[in-house]
Each structure stands twice: as C-alpha cells, then as structure tokens.
Amino acid sequence: MSLLAARSLSKSFRGLKAVQEASFEISEGGIDALIGPNGAGKTTIFNMIAGVFSPDSGEIVFDGRNIQGFRPDQVCAAGIGRTFQIVKPFAGLSVLDNVIVGALLREKSVPAARALSLRILEKLNLGSKAGLPASSLTLPDRKRLEVARALATRPRLLLLDEVMAGLRPTECDQMVEVFRELNRAEGITILLIEHVMRAVMALARHVGVLHHGEVIARGAPEEIVRDPAVLECYLGEDTEI
Amino acid sequence: MDPVNIANLALAGVLTGLVYGLMALGLSVIFGVVRVVNFAHGEMMTIAMYATVLLFSRWGIDPFLAVLPVALAFFVLGCALQAGLINPFITRPEHSQFMLLVAVALIMVNALLVGFGPDARSVQLDYLLESIEAGPLLLDRGKLYAALVACATAALLFAFFRFTPTGKAIRACADNYLGARVVGLNVRRYYALTFGLGSACVAVAGCMMVLLVDVTPVLGPGYTLLAFVIVIVGGLGSMTGALLGGVLIGLSEALAGLFIAPSAKSMFSFGLLILVLLFRPQGLLGRKS
Amino acid sequence: MTNRAIVLLSALGAILLVLPGFAGPYVLSVVTLILFFAYAGQAWNVMMGFAGQLSLGHSLYVGVGAYAAAGLYFHYGIGAWAGIWLAVLLCVALGCVIGFLAFRFGISGVYFALLTIAFAEFTRIGFDHIAWLGGPGGLFIKVEQRTAWDLLDLRGTPAMFYYVILFLAAGALLLCSLLLRTRAGYYWQAIREDEEAAQALGINTFRWKMLAVAISSAMTAVAGVFFAFYYNNLFPEQIFHISRSIEIILGPIIGGIGTLFGPVLGAAVLTILADGITELLVAFGLEFPGVKQVFYGVVLLVVVMFLPNGIWPALARRLKLERR
Predict the structure, then answer these.
(1) Hey, are the CB atoms on B107 and C289 less than 8 Å from each other?
(2) Site from C104, C193, C201, C259 to mutate, A interface, most A CB atoms within 10 angstroms
(3) What angle separates helix A110-123 from helix A95-103, to the nearest 10 degrees?
(4) What is the largest CA-CA distance in chain B?
C-alpha cells in the first residue's frame, strides 16, 4: 500500500536543475532512505514534500491526496512530521512545552496535550528532562526532542533530515534503535535523508539513490551498495560506512 | 501655476534632494555593511547641524569650511560608537540592536533640547542671498552649493569603495561576514570604519542642510525616518539608489506641496515607503537579497 | 507562581485598591500614569512578546481609539460606553490591515517596525488635516467637574479614572496570564522562538500572528479611549507622535518582553524614577525640558546593554517569585 508517491518531480533554481523527473514510492509501514552525494537533490525533494516550496512540475500524493504546493503546516496536518537538519528547538521553552506545542495539533486541550507529551518523552528517554529548558540539552538529546515534537503531531509518515549528522557511532546506533522501535510498535512510516551509511544500512529496508537530481537506483540496501551506477557516482566522494 | 514656477520648484526639490541623498547615503553604507538599523541617524545629522551653527555663530567659521572638521569629528565619533557600543551587539537579536540605537537617539535629541533649547537656529550667509539665473530659471545659491558639496562627497565615497583596498575589504564584509572573517579580515574594525564613514557623510549633509532649513532639536526623528524611506525606496546596498532616492523624495515633496497642502507632503513619502516595502522591498535599484 | 509571589501580589493589590483613600492628588495621578503605561505596555507585549513582531507604531491605535471615542462624544454626545466599540473596531481593522500586509508580503523584523512607524506617521499628518476632529488645533472635550461617577460617559473624579485604569491593568494581566496557558500562548511562544519549526508542527503562523495583532490593537484602542476622557484634549502631533510609541514600549522592554509582570514593573520603575529625578532637579533649581527624556534614554540604554531580558526575570530569580 503506497503511502507516499512522488511522480516526475522537477525543480530548478535560477536555471540550475536541482531535481529532474524524480519518482519513487513509499509503502506504509516501511522505512525508506534517500541517499546520494552532495548536491544530488535529496534536500530539495525533502523540502518539496515538507511544503517548504512547491515543485515546478510533478505530483506528490500522500494517502491518496495531492499535497504538492501545500504549506508546511498543511503538510503536517495531513499527517507528515519532519525534523530539521540543524535542530530547531524552542530554546526558551522547557522540553515538555516543546512537545506540547506539537501535541496541540491533535489534542483539544492543554492537559490532554501535556499527558500525551509526557508519554512520548518517556518513550524517547527524555522523561527525566521534561522540566529542563530545551537550550540545556546535549545535541543527541536535542535530536530526540525534535523527534518527540514531531511525533506529538501523530504523523503517519516521519521525514528525517540527516538526523544522524553530528552524532557519534554509539549515539547513532541508539537513534537507529529508537526509530526501529517506533516503526515496529507504532507503525510509523519513515523516510530518511541520510549521509551516514551506518544508519542507512541498519535501518532502511528500501533505498533510493539520487544523482544530479535523478533517481538512479532503487532497492534493498544490500543491492544498492553493489550497484555499479551507484558506486560510480560515489567514487571519490566521502562516505562513512 | 506656470511652467517656469513649477520648474523652479522642481529644481529646488532636486537640489535639496541631493543633500537628503547624501544623508541617506550615510545610512545606506551603515545599514548595508554593518546591518545595523541606525535609528539615531537623523539625530546625528541634527547634531552636525547644531555644530555648524555653533562654529558659525561663535567663531564665524563658514559652513563650507566647517565641513572638514565636523566630518572628521563625526568620523571619529562614529568609529567609537560602533566599536564601543554597537559591536558587542552584532550577535544579539535584532530588536536589541534596534532598541540600543533608539536609546541613543532619545538621549541625543533631548540632550540637544536641554543644551540648546527648543528655539530654532539658523545660519545666514550674505553671499548666498543672491540667486543665480540660468535662463528663465532661478537657482537658489545656497541650495546649489549645498548640492554640489553633496555630490562631491558622494563621489569621494564612491571612489573610496571602488578603488581603495580598504573600500573593497569593506564591501567584502558586507557581502559575506563569515567569508570575510575566514579570509582574515578584521571585520569589527571595518565595521567601525564604516560607521565612521557613514557618520562623516551625515555630518557633511548636516552642515549643508543648515543652509537650507532652520534647525530645532526635534528634527532628528523626522530625518531618521526620511533617511530610511530614501534608502528603502532607492534600494539597500545601492549607493546610487540612495542618491536617486533622495532626489526622488526631494522632488516629490517639492511638487506635492503644490498639489496637496504643503504640510501634508511628508505623507507622500510615507505612503511611498509603505508601497515599496510591500511591492518592491529591494527598492528601485537594490539587489534582491 | 510561588507562594511568596502570591502573598506579595495580594499585598500589592490590596494597597492599590485602597490607595485613593489616603493618597494625595499628585500621588494618585502618578500611579494612574503608571497603571496606564502598564496597561498599554501589556497590550503591546501581546504583539511583541508573544508573537515576536516589533511594533514601533502603537501610538496609531492609541490615537485612533482616542479620536474615535472623543469624536463621538464631542459631536453627538455619545458616551464612552459606545465609543469604545467604535474605537476597538477601527483599531482591530487597522491592525489587521497592517498585519496582513506585513505577513503576506513577508515583512518582518526591522522592516516591520519601519512599516508600523510609517503608518503611524502617515496617520499623524493625516489627522492634522481632519477639521472635523479639530485638526492641528486639537480636539477638546468639555471638562466637567463631577463628584458622581459616570462610568458610561467616563466623567468623574480622579479616583474614578484611577479605578478604571486599575481595573484595566489588572484585567490585562489576568487576560495575558490566561492566554499564556492556553493553546494560543503555546503557539505564540513557538512562533516567537522559531517560526519555521512552528509551521512544521502544523501551526498556521499567519492566522496566529494576526490574532496577536488583533488583540494587541484592540487592547491599545481601549487605552486610547481612556486617554481621551482622562486628559480631555487630543492633538495629532502629540498622540500619534513616535515618542508615544516609544513610551509605550519602554515599560515592557525595561521590565521584560514576553513576561507577565515585566510591563507593570517596567512602567513603575520608569515613572517613579523619572518623576523622582525631575523633582530632584527642580529642588536644585534646574528645570529643563527634555531632561526626563534623556533619563528615559539612559535607563533604556543601560537595560538593553546589561539586562537584555529586562529587570523582571533577574528580580524574580533573586526574590524567588517564580517556580523554576
């Protein structure tokens, strides 16, 4: 069952074609990754799905609805949550209040939102830090907070934008566990844009490879790393395995 | 309303507009490089005006000569203001910087009020009383000379930024703060320098403006707003834009005085500001950021 | 709030309630002024502290509100009880126009501030030319010495005005504290902290910013109505002037933007110190126009430089008035 389908997405910036006729599908309940060298167009596709800007042409279909051109808040309301590459916590608010902001999308009252938020924080091992100011958290915890916040909006699809960046290998493994558990227990579909191959190999069941704005390969992680086209585009590029 | 009259009015407006333009040029340089909203800009100009009045009434120094020491003094003060007060604020949120300069402006205006009182002062030069005839048109000598000084100062500034290494370094800082630092430019020093230059511009504009209007302490905020209108209409980061904007505003105020009540002519400037902010925020000549 | 804070607040409230009983007319007028700026500052705070939009043209709403109510009373004898509705309506409309233009066209920060200034200035010069409202010569409401309180027409003793503004200031405080605890409060703070992140959480930031602007302008309109009937004279040059806008924001900035008690504290500190200094100088025979404003400038400068979050957060921590 296809939850998200991108059909022939194209986007140019001042004449430079960032994304060309990219198409892919994500099944419900799956964990998909989009990888590719820098400048391949991953972030552009991500931003188009998240509503930051709309594609020049093409469609994005989420759960049967066309969502291309939606504003970011409309995308979230439709059921897609996202994190940011450079974390954006509400620094002046407490950890709990950060999540409450997200929870208020679906919960009618603040007490209900608070209850939901506490549960989510527990799930992400941030329960003990609920009262602390968000600005006092370490980077890995900030990333967890960002995930918790997005989860509070009860998304069906979670978009993760290079969420492993800046994490040490053990921290990365912990995050992988978190996502695996979320996917298994809550059935949340996950799409990650990622550079850190360690996470991609461990987490993703399907991988799409972008190069120069085009999808050049799709398949299971083991197949992708052996795909000659993929190897060629990565030759000379730094990858962390 | 015969055409000669209108032409004279328009010409007077253009000349005054050039002085406005110089004032706005100072702001454009400051805003464009240091990205500080100098809310005290008009107040600085007012101080320069008073300085000129003082030099003239106490020691009989002609404003055209006073330009040099006043500009120099303002250059030094501007550098000091930036280095001492504003530089620590570069990393603070925008409204903090803004409020800092609002505070400075408030102090300046009222210090002038306390020091000079609310009555108007002016500079009367005998040799400026005679108008120049250019065909059917009548040019006010004071306005003409003031405009010439304004143009000369602007030209000097252009040349500085275009041809000198320091000027180019400053432009680099404006374009890319981080990049400039990476390349090893002492950005904070250049910021101080730029603020000094902008202040010197304002000083010259002030010296010239006192030949065109009487000065009272409360002129400050009006000029600050005018400078912003001009810079935004003409385009941020564009020096030509500042001058052009100044001329445009000077012209429109002169002509608007004809068709609407003269006291309402500033409404036109504010209306123009609102329109530009909405529809073409980069101004007429500015680059989209 | 900690228990200590509740006790202090109650004590303060009690004192304020009985103040007219034992204070002389001068003290009463000073406290009335403090409460006026506390109220207006709180209104401004909704837009800035909660939604993060710096408005330097709030005198627009004070002026329009004042003239709307005063105009009705002057020309048609309709009292403040009706004038207030017109005032609020006009100001909300104005605020929404400015907000819409700004938010739709992506104007924020400095440019937004300039936009608000431009509107206020435009209106200031405009009102100078509205003869029906008195023009530059001003609009004067007949000052009637009444011993009875006429709340509907806002005619009465200084004590009446005192209680009206006390009620307004307390009401504003209550309203803001309630708002902060609701969805609106959370969303506004989120927008203020990081608008992009807020949008990614499903918040329609345009709508919520507009709401803050509407509430802020409505509240400020009421301040304008009070102003009109308290001072009984209105001049465009004065009421729309940028100095009014700056006076309004001094309280919240000095006390603490976005906090509940900041505007009140700031207004109190500023007014008391300013009046104190002026009195001191007069005692020494030094009376200059503008000294008070220099003082405002210096205080503002010091606060902005050394206490960027205002006095209240530091004070609250020291005196343990807020639960950390």
Answers:
(1) no
(2) C201
(3) 120
(4) 61
Q: Give the CA count within 13 Å in the CB-facing half-sphere of A132.
A: 14
Please provide the size of chain C in residues: 324
> Is C109 touching B (CB cutoff 8 A)?
yes
Yes or no, beta carbons of C300 and B103 under 8 Å apart: yes
**Environment class of residue B287 by beta-carbon count within 10 Å: exposed (0-12), middle (13-18) or buried (19+)?**
exposed
Taking CA atoms, what residue in C is nearest to A92?
C193
Phi/psi for A82 (5° steps) reads -145, 155
Nearest-CA distance C254 → chain B (Å) = 11
Give A40 to chain C, closest Cα distance, Å.
Answer: 24
Question: A197-235, pLDDT tens digit by residue?
Answer: 888 888 999 999 988 888 888 888 888 888 888 888 776
The contact set of C with A (CB < 8 A) is 181-183, 186-187, 189-190, 192-194, 196-205
- Read off the pLDDT of residues B59-94 as tens digits, 9 standing for 90 and up: 888 888 889 999 999 999 999 988 888 887 777 777
- State the CB neighbour count (10 A cutoff) for residue C10: 10
Report residue B87 CA to chain centroid gap. Answer: 22
Q: Tokens standing for A153?
A: 């909006």
DSSP chain B: --HHHHHHHHHHHHHHHHHHHHHHHHHHHHHHHH----TTHHHHHHHHHHHHHHHHHHH---HHHHHHHHHHHHHHHHHHIIIIIIGGGTTS-HHHHHHHHHHHHHHHHHHHHHHH-SS-B----GGGSSPEEETTEEE-HHHHHHHHHHHHHHHHHHHHHHHSHHHHHHHHHHH-HHHHHHTT--HHHHHHHHHHHHHHHHHHHHHHHTTTS-B-TTHHHHHHHHHHHHHHHH-TT-HHHHHHHHHHHHHHHHHHHHHS-GGGHHHHHHHHHHHHHHH-TTTTTPPP-
Q: Within 10 A of A137 (CB to CB), how many other CB atoms are there?
A: 20
Place of tokens 């800082």: B173
Tell me the per-residue pLDDT of C70-124, one tens digit each, with 9 for 90 and over: 998 888 888 888 889 999 999 999 999 999 888 887 777 778 888 898 899 889 8
- The interface pTM score, or ipTM, of the predicted complex is 0.89
Residues of chain C with confidence (pLDDT) below 70? 1, 145-148, 322-324
